[in-house]
Amino acid sequence: MKTATPVQRKVARPRADALRNRERIVTAAREMFVEHGPEVPLDDVARRAGVGNATVYRNFPDRDALVREVVCSVMDRTARAAETALAENGDAFAALERFVHVSADERISALCPMVSVTFDQNHPDLVAARERVERLVGQVMDRARAAGQLRSDVGVGDVMVAVAQLSRPPAGTECLRGDRFVHRHLQLFLDGLRAPARSVLPGAAVTMEDLRRPCD
User: Taking every annotated instance into account, which residue ranges of this chain make up the domain HTH tetR-type (predicted)?
Assistant: First the structure.
């Protein structure tokens, strides 16, 4: 009597059109979250993406899943910008400058309220994306610091807070109108990071752990 050999099943890969639809949903959600906040109706996201409601829910069973994917996608692009900066062989501070401006264009400022008011911040996908960004930005800054171009009393948290705050339009102004000034104000901030420092900063360099610590 012969023993039956188990049949190995092939894992079906997502179809190309399914992947494109998922990307369109994430892109549309990112745009609408920036414009209207994370509570925007998912039906509106579907219309912006040009897909049916069922397609949205087939990819993302609830709002938390979609918001998490948007946050991770922005973090991934920010990490790639940091990797590009590290790959440059020229001026280390110029590479840091380019990273900061690209990060602002990714609308990283929109992540702050979404992360703080919605889902589990310790989800493995979020933790992995966050740690990758922090590690790479730290390396970009370390290289500029080693070159004697970056002041020694600033941390990754200082840079990320500044990018988030300066790329967020002031209260009472239109988003697109505020966008005209983002890179101008970011450059003013970057000039303040250059070594040698012109003044002593109060307090200590801000780490990302400082930003996650609960308020007293």
Answer: 19-78
